[in-house]
Amino acid sequence: MTVIAVLADPPREGLGYPSLPGTSPLSAAEASELYEAVLRDLVRAVDRSGGSLLVNHPTEEQLPADARTETPPEAELRALVADTLGDASDVRFEPQVGSTFSARAGNTATHLLREEGAGSVAIVTPTTPFLSRSVIDAAAMKLRTATTILGPSTAGRCHYAGFTEPIDFADAFTPPSVQTLAERTRDAGGEVEFVRSLPTIETGRDLLDVVPLLRARFAAERVVPEHTATFVHEHGLAVHEDDGTGELTIVRG
After folding, report:
1. Are 158 and 181 in contact (CB under 8 A)?
2. Is the N or the C terminus of the chain less surrounded, counting Cβ atoms within 10 Å?
């Protein structure tokens, strides 16, 4: 069973998708609301898969001062997961260790593989609403024979990174992370395989990929990530061609 480590912040303003307010029509509060929706969809997908869910959260001290509240991040995330799944008793919650995302992801993967004897570990974040149960299980199957499984995304990023052996994780998740993680695995003598590419959300530009795909799947009567789809519908997000420039822009329909 692959341990799926979800590195997640509590959905507070300024933490969830901090670049969206300046690059899209969404406010800081709405960006946080979208982050929560994607997190709920991700938690549900992992719970329905054959993997074991681990929520890797920051401590209050690791958060910026203006993002701290009286509720500890673990308690906030526990409540969200319990509300999403109906029961969080089988979900592990562990604090993050490290000063950068690469350090936190690397420390989590290395600890689980070396200290706890996990057969495989995957690192994911609430940035990919289309990371479904089927993709997670397909990656787990590939981890039976490969050292590293990568899920490519746009702009050289990864939406999924699974490992059966630790690698050199220093700055490995800095874009182009898909290239760096593959090279580090090969440098360590390992084998790399891939699962299908999926778009991720960090900036308004990313919504140009996510929103049309979401609306297309809904129009085709295919499965969509429920909470993310609800957010897009309720906020009227759509992509249109600008009549003046011909460029695609994200708007409220």
Report:
1. yes
2. N
Cα gap 67→56, rounded to integer Å: 18
Rounded Cα distance, 145 and 150, in Å: 14
Residue 178: predicted pLDDT: 98
- Residue 125 is encoded by which pair of tokens? 């974040």
Give the DSSP per-residue string, 181-223.
HHHHHHHTT--EEE-------SSHHHHHHHHHHHHHHHHTT--
DSSP state of 15: T
pLDDT value at 136 more than 90:
yes
User: In the chain, pLDDT over 90 holds for what percent of residues?
Assistant: 94
Q: What is the DSSP letter of 65?
A: G
- Phi-psi group of 16: left, alpha or beta (phi > 0 → left; psi -120 to 50 → alpha; rest → beta): beta
Length of the chain: 253
